[in-house]
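About this split. The held-out portion is used to measure sequence recovery: a designer receives only the structure tokens and must propose an amino acid at every position. Recovery is the fraction of positions where the proposal matches the reference. Here is one held-out target exactly as it appears in the evaluation file.
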């Protein structure tokens, strides 16, 4: 009864007091609007105010801000904001400073709300802010000087125009008020009662997904700078976490008034993070689920509590709830009533607190209906200001209908706020000592599901803090304590590791594994793992693994997968396993292998972190595994696995497939099922921790290997962890941080920014730029957390504290406390023990004598026992510790006469010395090397001061190269004796000096150039003014490289002492000077070239006139590169002071000068060459005559390029003053001179060679006779190209002085000579070869007879080309002296001879092959019979081309003397022979391959049987083309004498062999590679039925497809059947992910249906076949594609069609599968549509036609070691390749013939090679690490030269840009894509940051390269330099060569 009365009283008090404070009204907000002086922000969706300059700067966090910006989207920032898409839809924090009262996508367009803002000093506003702060922070000494008020009134959320529903009428009103003084700032957020009507906004790019992002409320410092150049995420503070917490903004507050929130936001001296007020309000706590931060979060976030209903009684349930105080609504959360408490008795917390709000009612502020005095403090406010309330366990989320049940189920727990002194201000909300929420009264059980907590067994930080990691802090909760990792560390709090640092694992493997039937014992063998946390790579090695089990355990990658899960690369909204488990866990896994059903158990136990922070994990394996043949290779495809998370356990189940390739068994496929659970200890007390449900681990690469020689088993796995429905390779995650292809150091974190931008930040405990990080020695630098009596031991990325001798860690695990040695009774029984700090003393009792360790009653007779030192020494000397005699060189401790360790110990062998304590432990920092004076061990230790920032900076500068040579030009800071920066710093190389502050930052305005007096740095600074525009401009110019070397040639603006632009600016490199205005803009007409007087810039300017045409022209010429370097050789027009063109213009590079008119156009006839007198441009022009023919000709000659550079070697005609051709013309480049007529035509006979006297062209001509036929012939020969260059090798006839042919003509190039008649025709029989005497052409001819038919035939044969070059190989008939055909004719090239008749026709049967006796052609013919069918067949075969060249390889039938087919026919090229019948038809079964005995064709035939299947198959294969040429590379089946397939079949071209059955079908597992032993095909094998009946699954599938009309939709169900006809274990609806498992009869397995992305893991009910035959390597080209990218990927060549320039991944396919190959180089022949490739594994070069079913053809298979790059010259029909092992470059014809070595010297690591067919030029790369280069030569190996050798690292990829004529390369060392002209000029960077390029091609303004980081093809746009596309094959492995395949040859193909 008494308790009931008390309850009623409590409720009455509470209900009365709650009326005092209600939610604020709009009228209670700070005044706003135009009447209050507010500015109004423009309407829009993404507007930012103009800069709001603050009269005095404010401190936000610890930084000073002098201006603010107000933005539409509910935020205030200290810097101009980026576009909203960069932050509005992202989570907190932002990367720029933000005060966020309601960060969401707000839109005020169309009058939907107003946003007001101002900065004010109004006293009423200042006083009100001061009162609010004093209420929330009573101890604060704060008087604001300025206030910023920003109000969002009736603002709406952004809504898409395409939304079907009309615009929402929901609007919000809220306010942010910032008050500040000289040292502090405070922020108020105000949310009126009806102010919030929507609580989040929909992302703009959510497409059709109905999601809404809750508003973000809080503060973010943004990114902050550290280590000078690096940036990292700054501190931040969130008030909301989800929609419910946003709703609570106006329902509660932290000031005691709902809707009013107050925060301390900045301090001048020290500020860690935001501090909220805590006057009776409840601080939000993170939710139990959703998107809260992980346990190691650095951000204190408010969390989730239920919205509470009206405060009314529920009379129906009151009786049931009388056992606990009924406060209405949710018992787990209630707002603190004004003046109320949550203790059970609801009594005041202090008896002295005022009991009524009416006391001291002056100076009031009104909220709601009641006045609350500002100076009065409610009863709860007598508590210390640092106290913070936190709710106990929040209730679980329940449906609305279950709310009542929740009330009944969970009793209200009274809270008591317990002070822990001393309390600290500005403390992290999780910090120890901040607050403790405890339970008092009767024992109350909290059912956590695992452990029962009561007030008696509750653990607290005070008792158990030592269980937390050294890098964690402890926080108390209602039911116990939890550990949380400190910022910069991650883990579960009990174990914390530095963020970003690589992790090592060590342990032992033991157990018994039965391989086949052989058990193998593993006895504690070593396991080591190394994980690169930054990209998720986990490497595991198990050593000393016996051979049989080593091969068999290769598929057991799950052993190493544990470490991949623990430290996987985290994608957003996920966390790796170590953050959950820490270092103590147990993993149980069971593996079941199929088809053998072997079972293996794996138990892995994490034992914590060792002294080096390495994870210790022991592994026990037991069970059976299948036998794998020695030497086998195991491959596992990438896969995904889903982990389910429950309290204290994570589980997963999956089925994996793996392939085993061995010489004995070929390729086999197996699978295993893995089931596992990982148990760990979690902390259930912190209910704010996010509860995980499922996460997906993606293992992108799995590599396994057993090294027999070293007996090491290796696993390498790349791991990413993400939410289940996230594709880690999706485009939204292309940021290198998520892809794992960044270039951050392995000891650095990759921080993703927008798009592909990322930032590298060294891991905790490391320092550097993120790309190169080194360990911070916290011990040396004084950064350790070690306290008194402890020693610091440095670890990678961290450190460890160990107690000194005589001390041990106390309860907190951090503080070293004295060991009470006396408790272990170390002294003699007759002695007493005296404990001291760090030591103890033993004293013999009175009447006893000795040292205390041994006491005797007889003085002088004590024999003390051996001391610890003596025992240590004697053990080592006797060898007891080693188990044998002492090792030479071992350290023996030295003891003094009392048996104690001597303070100074020295190692007799090494000479090192060190000091020790009384236990013989080395004292830190006392070790000295041999030859140096030992430390004085009796002298007390000096405290070692840590290195200063200056000393770290100085020591980090790289002043020597890796080889030890000095590096010149880097700035090394100078530090004084105390390690501080000297005030004056000077650069040793440039001579510049400047002053610096204490941080080493340059003081503005103090830099002086070399040779001038340095600034007095000790002189006090003037008050620092902000940098001017000129100073910003000057400081922005890059004058030193990132490494600190000076950059020469850039223009640096000059500023005066006040920071303004000097009126006269000069370019230090070019010497030009000009005047500028106050903005630094050049004043028109003031620029002067070097060496001319500068303009007086201080002379008052005339009113500025607009720029003239000349000045625009001059200023438009690009004279400097984008980086500011001068560009030499361009023409810059000269303008006078009035901006007009100067009459005389000169080109500074070429020296030419000319006159121009007022428009700058050159005046004809005024151009003069360099050195010639210039034209007087002021002389009045003669009346302008029209240009003459000569002048037009001269101007047409192109002497300069479009860019204005000179072109050398072109012929320019010379004109006289009247514009007529000068009579003597000379070619400036060749030196030839000649006379011309008035039309400029060369006068015959006047040309002279260089160095010979010129003809006198003015000498009067003889009366000009017309040109003779010889002269016309001579002049018509083209000896120069259209550009005027000489053409060598053409025949030029020689004419005498009268113009007649000289009787003897000779070819200048070939040396042949012959006589000609008067018409220049060769006289028969007079031609002589070079070196033989010429015929006397003047000897009179016999009377000339007419030419005979033979002579006409002979003379008509074309032996020279139209240009006069010799043609070899044509048949020339032989005529006798009378001109008749000689009876025996022979072909000079082929060697065939035959007889002819009088008409030159071949006489049948007389042809003989080369080397055989010729027929006697003079023997009289038999009467001629008509040609037989055989002879007609033989004569119809085309053995010569139309030009008379022999054609090799055609089959020519053989006829006997009677013209009949010889019974045996043989093919001269292939060597096959066969018998024929009388019609020449092949007789079945008679064909024999080359080298085998031929069939006896004269033996009578057996009765002819019909052709067998094998014979039909064989005869169907096309071995010759329609023209009769042999086709090489086709597979021809071999049949036996009976026409049956031979059991063993071999491919004549590839060398592969296999066994076949009676139908010729390959028997699985019998295929062998060339050179390998063949399988015995006669050995009996189980023969399967030739044809099985259709299975149930197949019949059902066929029936349903017919039912669907032959084309089922993507959503319709079609049964999936295995190759053997059984049901597939997983069945799905079409292409959806709605799947289930079935048994062998197709019946659904209950409970297996899944709608998830991850298909259910179903086990096959029928064992799969263990052997799969290798498919035939035949081509499957893509269809309907014009342009295809071909790429090499290990054992296949892939085809990726292009759609325009986009990669069409949907149509990608495998062009050719080549098992056992490693395809590297790849090239394409567009003329023959063939692909060529190099095979690194088989050491071959191959090709295949890109036609369906085509098979590969081996071209070269000898003398290749490591063939890589390959190029095809389609024009010359050649191929070129590099062999990187012997370091040579070779070439051959496209059929492999004509092989030759081009280069075998000066090559180290040649890789890529290309050929430019149009120019006949080769280019190749050599990535010699010492001297990488790109070289070129002609295709015949001439003119070798280096194109590029500077600024390259690993030039892997090479291509040719046909549009610009440049050679381009991609460098895996510099990461750049660059291009350069063949002459080395015009070099430019196309893309500065590639990943790891290997090969590259160019097509239509795009570069496509294969990338080893991404394992895909990446496209780069040449113009924009942006990555535009990416293709990642499904099977992830390295891509090698890449080529373009086209349906027709492109222009510029190379």
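Reference sequence for scoring:
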């Amino acid at each position: 009864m008494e308790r009931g009365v008390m309850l009623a009283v409590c409720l009455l008090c509470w209900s009365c007091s709650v009326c005092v404070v209600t939610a604020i009204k709009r009228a209670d907000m700070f005044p706003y609007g135009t009447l209050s002086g507010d500015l109004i922000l423009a309407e829009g969706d993404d507007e930012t105010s103009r800069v709001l300059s603050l009269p005095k700067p404010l401190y936000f966090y610890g930084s000073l801000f002098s201006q603010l910006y107000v933005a539409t989207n509910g935020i205030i920032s200290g810097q101009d904001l980026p576009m909203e898409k960069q932050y509005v839809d992202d989570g907190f924090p932002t990367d720029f400073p933000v005060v966020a009262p309601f960060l969401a996508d707000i839109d005020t367009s169309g009058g939907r709300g107003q946003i007001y803002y101002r900065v004010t000093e109004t006293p009423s506003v200042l006083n009100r802010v001061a009162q609010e702060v004093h209420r929330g922070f009573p101890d604060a000494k704060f008087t604001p000087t300025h206030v910023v008020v920003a109000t969002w009134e009736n603002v709406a959320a952004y809504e898409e125009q395409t939304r079907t529903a009309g615009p929402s009428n929901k609007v919000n009103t809220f306010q942010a008020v910032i008050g500040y003084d000289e040292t502090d700032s405070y922020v108020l957020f105000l949310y009126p009662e009806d102010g919030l009507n929507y609580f989040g906004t929909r992302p703009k790019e959510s497409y059709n997904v109905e999601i809404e992002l809750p508003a973000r409320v809080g503060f973010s410092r943004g990114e902050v700078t550290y280590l000078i150049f690096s940036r990292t995420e700054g501190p931040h503070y969130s008030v909301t976490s989800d929609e419910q917490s946003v709703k609570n903004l106006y329902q509660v507050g932290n000031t005691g008034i709902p809707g009013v929130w107050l925060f301390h936001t900045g301090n001048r001296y020290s500020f860690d993070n935001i501090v909220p007020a805590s006057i009776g309000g409840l601080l939000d706590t993170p939710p139990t689920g959703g998107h809260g931060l992980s346990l190691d979060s650095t951000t204190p976030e408010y969390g989730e509590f239920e919205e509470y209903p009206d405060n009314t009684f529920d009379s129906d349930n009151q009786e049931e709830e009388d056992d606990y105080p009924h406060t209405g609504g949710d018992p787990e959360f209630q707002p603190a009533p004004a003046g109320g408490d949550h203790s059970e008795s609801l009594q005041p917390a202090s008896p002295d607190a005022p009991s009524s709000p009416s006391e001291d009612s002056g100076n009031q502020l009104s909220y709601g209906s009641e006045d609350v005095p500002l100076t009065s403090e409610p009863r709860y406010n007598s508590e210390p200001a640092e106290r913070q309330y936190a709710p106990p366990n929040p209730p679980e989320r329940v449906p609305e209908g279950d709310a009542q049940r929740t009330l009944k189920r969970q009793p209200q727990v009274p809270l008591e706020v317990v002070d822990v002194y001393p309390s600290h201000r500005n403390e992290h909300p999780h910090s120890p000592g901040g607050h403790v929420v405890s339970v008092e009264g009767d024992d109350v059980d909290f059912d956590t599901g695992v452990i029962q907590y009561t007030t008696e067994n509750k653990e607290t930080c005070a008792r158990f803090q030592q269980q937390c990691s050294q890098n964690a802090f402890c926080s108390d909760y209602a039911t116990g304590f939890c550990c949380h990792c400190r910022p910069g560390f991650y883990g579960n709090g009990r174990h914390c590791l530095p963020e970003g640092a690589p992790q090592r694992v060590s342990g032992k493997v033991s157990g018994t594994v039965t391989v086949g039937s052989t058990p193998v014992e593993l006895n504690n063998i070593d396991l080591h793992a190394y994980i690169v946390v930054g990209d998720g790579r986990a490497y595991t090695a198990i050593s000393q693994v016996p051979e049989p089990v080593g091969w068999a355990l290769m598929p057991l990658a799950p052993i190493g997968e544990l470490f991949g899960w623990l430290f996987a690369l985290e994608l957003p909204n996920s966390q790796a396993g170590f953050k959950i488990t820490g270092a103590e866990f147990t993993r149980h896994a069971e593996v079941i292998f199929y088809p053998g059903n072997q079972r293996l158990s794996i138990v892995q136990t994490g034992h914590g972190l060792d002294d080096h922070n390495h994870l210790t994990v022991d592994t026990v394996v037991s069970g059976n595994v299948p036998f794998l043949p020695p030497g086998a290779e195991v491959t596992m495809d990438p896969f995904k696995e889903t982990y389910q998370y429950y309290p204290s356990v994570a589980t997963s189940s999956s089925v994996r497939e793996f392939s085993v390739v061995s010489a004995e068994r070929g390729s086999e496929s197996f699978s295993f099922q893995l089931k596992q659970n990982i148990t760990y200890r979690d902390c259930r007390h912190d209910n704010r921790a996010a509860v995980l449900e499922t996460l997906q681990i993606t293992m992108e690469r799995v590599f396994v290997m057993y090294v027999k020689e070293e007996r090491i088993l290796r696993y390498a796995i790349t791991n990413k962890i993400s939410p289940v429905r996230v594709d880690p390779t999706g485009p939204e995650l292309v940021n290198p941080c998520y892809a794992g292809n960044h270039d951050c150091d392995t000891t650095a974190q990759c921080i993703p920014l927008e798009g592909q931008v990322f930032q590298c930040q060294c891991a905790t405990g490391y320092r550097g730029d993120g790309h190169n990080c080194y360990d911070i020695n916290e011990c040396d630098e004084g950064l350790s957390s070690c306290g008194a009596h402890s020693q610091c031991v440095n670890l990678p990325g961290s450190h460890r504290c160990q107690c000194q001798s005589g001390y041990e860690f106390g309860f907190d695990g951090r503080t070293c406390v004295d060991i009470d040695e006396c408790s272990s009774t170390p002294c003699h029984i007759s002695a007493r023990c005296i404990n001291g700090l760090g030591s103890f003393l033993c004293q013999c009792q009175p009447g006893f004598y000795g040292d205390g360790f041994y006491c005797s009653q007889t003085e002088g007779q004590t024999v003390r026992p051996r001391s610890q030192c003596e025992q240590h020494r004697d053990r080592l000397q006797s060898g007891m510790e080693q188990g044998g005699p002492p090792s030479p060189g071992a350290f023996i401790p030295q003891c003094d006469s009392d048996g104690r360790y001597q303070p100074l110990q020295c190692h007799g062998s090494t000479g090192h010395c060190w000091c020790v304590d009384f236990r013989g432990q080395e004292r830190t920092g006392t070790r000295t090397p041999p030859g140096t004076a030992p430390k004085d061990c009796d002298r007390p230790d000096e405290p070692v001061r840590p290195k200063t920032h200056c000393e770290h900076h100085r020591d980090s500068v790289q002043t020597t190269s890796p080889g030890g040579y000095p590096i010149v030009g880097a700035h090394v800071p100078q530090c004084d004796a105390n390690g501080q920066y000297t005030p004056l710093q000077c650069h040793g190389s440039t001579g510049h000096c400047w002053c610096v502050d204490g941080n080493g930052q340059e003081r503005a305005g103090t830099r002086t150039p070399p040779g001038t007096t340095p600034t007095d740095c000790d002189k006090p600074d003037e008050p620092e003014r902000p940098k001017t525009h000129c100073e910003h401009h000057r400081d922005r110019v890059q004058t030193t490289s990132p490494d600190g070397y000076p950059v020469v040639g850039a223009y640096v603006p000059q500023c005066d002492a006040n920071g303004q632009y000097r009126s006269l600016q000069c370019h230090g490199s070019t010497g030009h000077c000009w005047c500028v205005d106050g903005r630094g803009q050049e004043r028109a007409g003031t620029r002067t070239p070097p060496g001319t007087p500068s303009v007086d810039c201080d002379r008052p300017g005339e009113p500025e006139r607009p720029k003239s045409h000349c000045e625009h022209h001059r200023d438009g010429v690009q004279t400097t590169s984008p980086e500011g370097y001068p560009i030499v050789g361009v023409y810059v027009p000269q303008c006078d002071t009035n901006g007009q063109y100067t009459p005389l213009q000169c080109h500074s590079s070429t020296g030419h000068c000319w006159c121009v008119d007022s428009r700058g156009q050159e005046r004809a006839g005024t151009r003069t060459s360099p050195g010639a007198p210039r034209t007087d441009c002021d002389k009045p022009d003669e009346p302008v005559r029209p240009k003459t023919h000569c002048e037009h000709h001269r101007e047409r000659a192109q002497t300069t390029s479009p860019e204005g550079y000179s072109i050398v070697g072109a012929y320019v005609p010379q004109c006289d003053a009247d514009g007529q051709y000068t009579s003597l013309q000379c070619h400036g480049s060749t030196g030839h001179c000649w006379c011309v007529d008035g039309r400029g035509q060369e006068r015959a006979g006047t040309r002279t060679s260089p160095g010979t006297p010129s003809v006198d062209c003015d000498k009067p001509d003889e009366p000009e006779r017309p040109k003779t036929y010889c002269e016309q012939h001579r002049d018509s020969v083209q000896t120069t190209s259209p550009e005027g260059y000489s053409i060598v090798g053409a025949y030029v006839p020689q004419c005498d002085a009268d113009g007649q042919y000289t009787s003897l003509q000779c070819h200048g190039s070939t040396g042949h000579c012959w006589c000609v008649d008067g018409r220049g025709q060769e006289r028969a029989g007079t031609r002589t070869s070079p070196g033989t005497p010429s015929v006397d052409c003047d000897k009179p001819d016999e009377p000339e007879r007419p030419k005979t038919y033979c002579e006409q035939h002979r003379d008509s044969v074309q032996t020279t080309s139209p240009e006069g070059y010799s043609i070899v190989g044509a048949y020339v008939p032989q005529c006798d002296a009378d001109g008749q055909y000689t009876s025996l004719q022979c072909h000079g090239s082929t060697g065939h001879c035959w007889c002819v008749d009088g008409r030159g026709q071949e006489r049948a049967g007389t042809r003989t092959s080369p080397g055989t006796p010729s027929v006697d052609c003079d023997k009289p013919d038999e009467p001629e019979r008509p040609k037989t069918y055989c002879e007609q067949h033989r004569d119809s075969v085309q053995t010569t081309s139309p030009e008379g060249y022999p054609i090799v390889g055609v089959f020519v039938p053989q006829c006997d003397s009677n013209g009949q087919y010889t019974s045996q026919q043989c093919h001269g090229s292939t060597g096959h022979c066969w018998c024929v019948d009388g019609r020449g038809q092949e007789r079945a079964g008679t064909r024999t391959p080359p080298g085998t005995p031929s069939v006896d064709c004269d033996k009578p035939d057996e009765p002819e049987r019909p052709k067998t299947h094998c014979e039909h198959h064989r005869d169907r294969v096309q071995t010759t083309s329609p023209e009769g040429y042999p086709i090489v590379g086709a597979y021809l089946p071999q049949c036996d004498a009976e026409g049956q397939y031979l059991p063993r079949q071999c491919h004549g071209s590839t060398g592969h062999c296999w066994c076949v059955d009676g139908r010729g079908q390959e028997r699985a597992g019998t295929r062998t590679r060339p050179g390998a032993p063949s399988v015995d095909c006669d050995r009996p094998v189980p023969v399967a039925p030739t044809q099985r009946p259709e299975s149930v699954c197949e019949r059902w599938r066929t029936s349903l497809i017919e039912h669907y009309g032959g084309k089922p939709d993507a959503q319709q169900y079609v049964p999936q059947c295995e190759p053997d006809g059984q049901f597939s274990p997983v069945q799905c609806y079409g292409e959806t992910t709605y799947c289930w498992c079935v048994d062998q009869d197709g019946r659904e397995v209950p409970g297996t249906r899944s709608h998830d992305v991850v298909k259910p893991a179903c086990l096959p009910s029928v064992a799969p076949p263990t052997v799969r035959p290798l498919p035939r390597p035949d081509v499957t080209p893509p269809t309907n594609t014009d342009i295809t990218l071909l790429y090499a990927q290990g054992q296949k060549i892939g085809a990726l069609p292009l759609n325009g320039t986009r990669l069409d991944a949907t149509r990608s396919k495998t062009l050719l599968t080549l098992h056992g190959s490693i395809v590297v180089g790849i090239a394409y022949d567009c003329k023959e549509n063939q692909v060529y490739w190099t095979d690194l594994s088989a050491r071959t070069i191959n090709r295949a036609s890109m036609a369906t079913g085509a098979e590969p053809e081996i071209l070269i298979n000898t003398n290749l070691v490591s063939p890589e790059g390959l190029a095809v010259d389609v024009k010359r029909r050649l191929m070129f390749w590099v062999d990187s092992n012997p370091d040579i470059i070779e070439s051959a014809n496209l059929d492999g013939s004509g092989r030759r070595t081009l280069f075998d010297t000066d090559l180290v690591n040649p890789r890529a090679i290309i050929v430019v067919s149009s120019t006949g030029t080769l280019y190749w790369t050599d990535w010699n690490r010492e001297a990488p280069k790109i070289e070129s030569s002609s295709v015949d190996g001439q003119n070798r030269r280096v194109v590029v050798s500077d600024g390259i690292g690993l030039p892997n990829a090479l291509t040719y840009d046909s549009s610009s004529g440049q050679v381009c390369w991609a460098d895996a060392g510099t990461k750049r894509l660059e291009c350069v002209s063949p002459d080395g000029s015009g070099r430019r960077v196309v893309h500065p940051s590639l990943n790891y390029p290997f090969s590259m091609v160019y097509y239509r303004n795009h570069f496509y390269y294969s990338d080893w980081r991404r394992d895909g093809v990446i496209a780069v746009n040449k113009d924009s330099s942006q990555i535009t596309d990416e293709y990642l094959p499904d099977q992830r492995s390295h891509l090698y060569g890449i080529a373009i395949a086209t349906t027709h040859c492109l222009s510029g193909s190379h």
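Annotator remark: The longest strand covers residues 518-532.
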